[in-house]
Amino acid sequence: MSHMIGKSAYKKLEERLNRYPQGAPPSETLYKILSILFNEKDAELVSQLPIKPFTINTASRIWKLNKVNTEKVLDELAGKAILMDSKHNGIKKYVLPPPMAGFFEFSLMRTRKNIDQKLLSELFYQYLNVEEDFVKDLFLGSETLLGRTFVQEEVLSKDNLISILDYEKASHIIKTASYIGISMCYCRHKMEHLGKACDAPMDICMTFNNIAKSLTRHNYARRVEASECMELLHKAYEYNLVQCGENVKNNVSFICNCCSCCCEFLVAAKKFGMLHPVQTTSFIPKINEDNCTGCGKCVKACPSKNIKTNTISLQQYIQAL
Are 289 and 313 in contact (CB under 8 A)? Predict the structure, then answer.
């Protein structure tokens, strides 16, 4: 840790990130990630920013810079998708998002030449998939879970669909959003650099409202209408992807279309399933043992691999007699 503590700006930034309920456990890997995403000056400045959205005046006062230079720095950080920017009643505001869902993902939501995305992907994989402290803190560090899944509407009958509440439907989030952005999937982009990506669609990450506006403004997303976003949702169903989003009922800011091999939500669900890392829908499939033929289709179809072969092995045994 002596090597890390010497980097005072990055140490301050790490401490700032850990003021969120969702933390970023310190490690050599984290500091390498931060050094790619932030130069030392930016790390020093960002470490001083408030948790809540703030104005140019607030940042100017904190940084002791004039407003012109302050706005220039803030806009440069927003251009790197480190800060999110928006306007409220004509007043420009900024906010530092958490690492996830936030600037970790934004760094890989488009192809960029100004950072080494392959190296960054390798570091993300080490920090999230190997070291595990961050993922455990992210998904298991609070009683209120970060993410929740949406019901897969195309498998439901009309009667069943009527009984599903709007906030559990990805289609409702899409159709009621004021602004929609589509970006590259961070998870599959990361795995692509590692040579481990699957064949699921890459440009299918959905963001909404103010987050989408900020990402599209800085070319980290492209704006689409609800009709195109619905087409992408149906495409996600065709690839058996799971819709995971922010665990809120209103003003959902993102929906990821997750595969079980690349995406952090489902990788965590497979690895820590008994600890319940993601809030599930109220509509859960159930095997009808009386009608089960032991074909194994449900085992292959389950994206989180929670249905095991031994669940149906007794029926298979009876059929073999």
Answer: no
Q: Which pLDDT tens digit goes with each residue over 125-178?
A: 999 888 888 877 777 666 666 778 888 877 776 766 666 778 789 999 999 999
* Cβ proximity of 24 and 123 under 8 Å: no
Q: What angle do CA 218, 224, 226 make, to 5 degrees?
A: 140
pLDDT tens-place string over residues 35-60: 999 999 999 999 999 999 999 999 99
Task: For residue 100, give the nearest of 175, 24, 35 by alpha carbon.
Answer: 24
More confident residue, 164 or 238: 238
Q: Residue 208: which H helix or E strand, with range?
A: strand 203-208
Choose among 97, 240, 257, 98: nearest CA to 174.
Answer: 257
DSSP string, 148-161: EEPB-GGGS-HHHH
The Cα–Cα gap between 217 and 301 comes to 38
* Beta strands 203-208 and 222-223, pairing class: unpaired
Show Cβ contacts of residue 269 under 8 Å, excluding neighbours closer than 6 positions.
260, 277, 278, 304, 306
**Burial class of residue 251, CB neighbours in 10 A (0-12, 13-18, 19+):** middle
Cβ atoms within 10 Å of 3's Cβ, excluding its own? 8
